[in-house]
Amino acid sequence: MTIPPNLSALPPGFVVLRSALDDVSLVLADTAADAAWARTDHSVLTEQEINYSLEFDPELATTWAAGRVVLRHVLGSVLDCDPGSIEIRLDIAGKPRVTDCEFSVTRAQRLVLVAVAADPVGVDLEAIPEDSVAAEAAALLHSRERDELAQLEGRELAESFVRVWARKEAFLKALSTGLARDPGMDYIGAAGSPQSPHPDVDIVDVVNGIPAGYSAALAVNR
Question: Which of 70, 104, 119, 173 could form a disulfide with 123 if both were Cys (CB 3.0 to 4.6 A apart)?
C-alpha cells in the first residue's frame, strides 16, 4: 500500500516539511502562532476525545486537544476524508491507530508534528532542556551514548542529549513499543547522523523547518 502525499487541503498554519524519507508526509503546526485556531476549534473532535482532554489540568487539556485537532486535519488531508469522521482507536499497547495508514504524532510545548506513512512510523519533537536536566536524563541512554555525551558540557551537552533522545523516541515509536522498551537498550548515537540498531528501521534527523530550541527525528519501520 502506498499513501500519497495529498496535503493540498491542509488548514491555515500547517507547514509541510521535507525530510530524507520522501515516502513520509510530515506536517508541523505552531498552535501559538498561525495554527492557534486549533486550540479553540474542536469541531472535528469526538465527544470522547473532548471528555478525555478535560481529565488534565487546563493548559495540558488545551495542548492535548490542539494536538488531536492537528492530527485529525492532517489525516483527513492525506486520506481525503472528513477529519471528524476518522475512527482513531487504541491498539493493545495503547498506541492510537487508524485503518488506512500509519501515523505518529508528537507535541512539544506549542508545536505539533505529525508523520503519516504506509509503514509503521515514529516521529519525535523535543524542546532542548535545561543543562542540569539533560545531564541527569543522560543516565537513561545506552552506555556508549552516555560515554559520547560525557565529553560535553553546558548547552552543547543539552543539545546533543535532546538530539539523541528524539532519535530514540522516534525509533521506539516506529517499533510500536514506545518507552515500554528500555531506551538504554539500543545504541543510536550522538554523532552527526543516527545509527539504526534495527536493519528494517530507517532513522533521520528532521532539521528543515524545525524552530530553534527544538530537535526532531523521524523513523520508518519497513
Answer: 104
